[in-house]
Amino acid sequence: MATCRDIVTRALRLSGVIRLSAMPTASEADYGMEGLQSLFSEFVNAEAFGEMTDKRATADYTAGENERITASAGVTVTLPTTIEDEDADDGIRTPHDLAMIEVLQDGVRSAKVYDRDGWVELLGLSLGNTCPLAHRGEHGLAALLALETMGPFAANVSQADIMAARRFKGQLLYRGQGKGRSLAAVYY
Q1: Phi and psi (nearest 5°) for 70?
Q2: Which pTM does this prediction carry?
Q3: Which regions of the chain does DSSP assign to beta strands (E)?
Q4: pLDDT (tens place) for every residue of the chain, 188 residues total
Q5: Which residues contact 114 (CB under 8 A, 6 or more apart)?
């Protein structure tokens, strides 16, 4: 699995900030990590993974998909591993791919997205962390990072990389089809 450092390094190379064989300096890596974190924060703030429903938890609470929960101090918010769904064969399913849960508790904000087989954190990352969503296309994520955060260096990104960035972003973003994402086919 790619780390945040891997994606940042690739983005710095794509934008021409560093040479193909070079490794970023500490300040270049920090700059890239700030950009990557900003990109994920923008996804969260823009409700890119689906419309969020606000909830207040004053007692222990199991979150639902696409909920923004403000939890009182001492409350435990549990992330679901299964969801009750009357449309599922046995009435239970895993969370929808790219469903999100955001929790604000004691001034700390957490945003997790269900990424194929588990919940992954999008905020508070460091260079050594496994990079969320990277397995969906390391090159596309790095190209998106290069385009959206490298300022004047983004002019060096090739047309092919711009297309890779657009494809990556397009596969992630919510398209207004109701809460969460259903992978099941709908027949009319």
Answers
A1: -100, 115
A2: 0.85
A3: 53-57, 61-62, 67-71, 77-78, 83-84, 92-93, 100-105, 108-114, 119-121
A4: 899 999 999 999 999 888 988 999 999 999 999 999 999 999 999 999 989 999 999 999 999 999 999 999 999 999 999 999 888 888 899 999 999 999 999 999 999 999 988 999 999 999 999 999 999 999 999 999 999 887 777 778 889 999 999 999 998 876 544 444 444 544 55
A5: 65, 94, 95, 96, 97, 98, 99, 100
Tokens 């945003």 — which residue?
111
Q: CA separation (Å) from 135 to 33, 97, 188?
A: 18, 14, 33
Cα-Cα-Cα-Cα dihedral sign, residues 42, 39, 112, 51: positive
Query: Under 8 Å CB-to-CB from 27, ≥6 apart: which residues?
Result: none
